Amino acid sequence: MAVEVARLEPRRRRFSAAGGPRYPGWLALPAVGWYLLFFVGPLAILALFSVAERVGFSTVVYTFNLDNFADLWDPLYGKVFLRTLQLAVVGTVATLLVGFPLAYYLARYATRKTLLLLLIVIPFWTSFLIRTYAWLIILAPDFPLFRALRWAGIVPSDLQILYTEKAVYIGVIYNYLPLMVLPLYAALERMDWSLVDAAQDLGDNAWQAFRRVTLPLVLPGVLAGSLLTFIPLTGEYLVPVILGGDLTVYAGNLIGSQFVTSRDWPFGAAIAMVVVGAMTVAVLLYARLARREEQFGG
Amino acid sequence: MGRRLLGAWSLLVYVFLYAPIAVVVFFAFNGGRQVLNWDGFSTKWFGEALSDPTITGPFRTSLLIALVNALIACVLGTALAMAIPKMRTWVRNPVDALVYMTLVTPEIVFGISALIFFVQIGNWLGLSSILGFWTVLIAHVVFNASVVALVVRARFVGMGQTLEEASYDLGAGPISTFRQVTLPRLAPAVLAGGLLAFTFSFDDFITSFFVAGAGTTTLPLRIFSSLRFGVSPIVNAAAAMILVLTLTAIVVAYLVLRRTERKELAWQSR
After folding, report:
1. Which long-range contacts (CB under 8 A, 24 or more apart) does B169-178 make?
2. Quick check: helix, strand or coil at residue A260?
3. Residue A8: pLDDT band with limits 50, 70, 90
4. Which pLDDT score, from 0 to 100, does residue B1 have?
5. What are phi and psi of A54, to 5 degrees?
């Protein structure tokens, strides 16, 4: 069989069905030009700005000094970066904990998988702003459910969620859940569940079988979902602005405020470069873990 | 863990996913002056929203930007999707990386980069400010061209090239082959990609926030600026309308894609 395929290969390639119709490569030029001019160009200017100097209120002189980065070496900003790291790590883990049982159920037990999966993705495609805004209503102290819970004495009367970090975490889990669930589902869907049965027949309890069989096999999906959640969280801007109070400042908000209120653009550019740096580290770490997984896992 | 427990958890997660959307739409029908104090069913706030020029103006701006953005993104993205599969690896890999980068870069980073970029261009041209409609449009096309490219490419790669070969054999040139053979088969994917590009632009907040300048307001910017003063019934009605509009666009995009897939399967199994 293998020999036959190998022999057929050269002939089939000439009329290959894969790869689609043949059209010239220059068709890519308009889009690539657009990317180079309006995406790579701005990012290059961002890098230039991060080492530029602000003179007076809003004049910027192109130089090469690292003062902007040195200014970041301050306990005040250190706190912001730590809080951002915490948001990205805890937010990712929390989203994983909420999403994993769902993905597991969908992959192993659910009957109408396509529809259920679609129902997870649909909210993700609607306005991020309005989805976040909706929590402003639900978490408001006046929200009927809240009033009822308070009246029944189930929650303390001074419980405040809105404008605290709690609200930020709820908003984050809500908005990034689909990004986590899809790769998890893709990995769990490929699982051969008879392996779990085999482990249990051989004396593992349910938890041991999960830890020793399921988890190692779906780890690539867990990594991919975590990366997809972690990356945008390092630069999260909107959720803290809407649901967090004035005290919940993250790196994304620090960047934004340099452009909206303080107008220190080079400093804002420097913070953005730090975020991009953290993001790149996460991606490289992921690539490394994923490669190791490919070599030794599975 | 038991199957029932997992099922119950999943149900809770679905409630969690849809409750906020349902709450916004539900309270949009509240006739009272305060969003959360129910004061009878009424559609009056939709009427108020639609006759408030500070909402209809931004609505028109958003609609126009989203439409033009979708058109440009469709042309750029489709052309890119058709060119990528046949590229050599050393060209394809960086182009691929560029496409994905436009989608994963945190919007705040892209937003401020675009702001600095446009302001510098304005300075070089000697103009006081070029921020506005056009800069929002240009910035939106960056990530939406990638969205269209990804959607169209999935379809393009899967459709084989035998019909195009036949078209060439029968004497058609590349342009008429594209127009008569490839485009009709690609159209549903282009339409679906375009609808997604439309909603992503229509919904975009962060990028618009930084590159819109003082004179241009899109609908999400208008909604955001009112949030500082709490939740108002007019804005809530506008938000409900946006939700319904984008949900419709997305479901249509999905149905279009699924119908073509089914047709294709039926065609293949003949």
Report:
1. B174/A23, B174/A24, B177/A21, B178/A23
2. helix
3. very low
4. 56
5. -90, 130
Q: Is the pLDDT of residue A266 over 90?
A: yes
Strand, helix or coil for residue A139: coil
Residue B137 CB contacts under 8 Å (≥ 6 apart), including other chains:
B65, B68, B69, B72
Are residues A275 and B109, on separate chains, in Cβ contact within 8 Å? Answer: yes
Which pLDDT score, from 0 to 100, does residue A11 have? 42
What is the pTM assigned to this prediction?
A: 0.88
The reply to whether residue A45 touches residue B113, judged by beta carbons under 8 angstroms, is yes
**pLDDT reading at A17 higher than 70:** no
List of chain B residues with pLDDT < 50: none
Question: How many angstroms away from the CA of A221 is the closest CA of chain B?
Answer: 18
Distance from CA of B46 to the nearest CA of A (A): 16
Helix pair A251-260, B107-125: axis angle to 10 deg: 20
In contact, B209 and A259? CB cutoff 8 Å:
no
Given a contact cutoff of 8 angstroms between Cβ atoms, the answer to whether B154 and B108 are in contact is: no
What would the pLDDT profile of B41-67 be if each residue is shown by its tens digit?
999 999 999 999 999 999 999 999 999
| Distance (Å, whole) CA A293 – CA A31 | 35
User: Which chain B residue has the Cα nearest residue A18?
Assistant: B160
Chain A interface test: which of B78, B82, B109, B136 (most A C-beta within 10 Å):
B109
Q: For all residues of chain B together, what is the average pLDDT?
A: 90
Query: If you average pLDDT over every residue of chain A, what do you get?
Result: 87
Residue numbers of A between 156 and 215 with CB closer than 8 Å to B: 174, 177, 206
Tokens for A201? 């027949």
Maximum C-alpha span of chain B: 71
Nearest chain B alpha carbon to A21? B161
SS3 A176: helix
A131, A138, A237 ranked by CB distance to B108: nearest: A237
Provide the ipTM.
Answer: 0.90
